[in-house]
Amino acid sequence: MTLIETIQYAAVAGFVLVGSFFLLVGTIGLIRFPNVYNRLHATSKATTLGAASMFLAGFVYFDGQGVALETLVAIVFLFLTAPTGGHLISRSARKMGVDFTDDVEWPLSGAGIDRGEAEEPDD
């Protein structure tokens, strides 16, 4: 085994370990957090980084040829769709009336979300 192969395998192992860590943290957050907004934050951020690390491990393992190019496309797709999906889920939860925990409230203005409250017309 040459020095280059050793470095390549070490990089693959490092990416897999980092990816596994982030996926584990995202899973624990999904189980432990109290409401949809906290769970969504844990899963969208941590699992995006975890899956991207796994894809990078595949890219390094295949030496940037063949299947490796598909992993780069998957990383780009993941970084474009995961935050968008998380945003849409949180907006849907808000429109369905899911509240934050405890005394936290939505801001009255600037969020761009209709609170469903009828406003009094100015006379």
TrEMBL record:
Keywords from the UniProt entry: Membrane, Transmembrane, Transmembrane helix
UniProt cross-references to InterPro entries, sorted A to Z: PhaG_MnhG_YufB
Transmembrane helix is among the record's keywords: yes
Transmembrane feature ranges: 6-31, 68-89
Pfam families membership: PhaG_MnhG_YufB
NCBIfam families documented for this protein: CPA3_mnhG_phaG
Descriptive protein name: Monovalent cation/H(+) antiporter subunit G
Protein species of origin: Haloarchaeobius litoreus
Gene that encodes the chain: mnhG
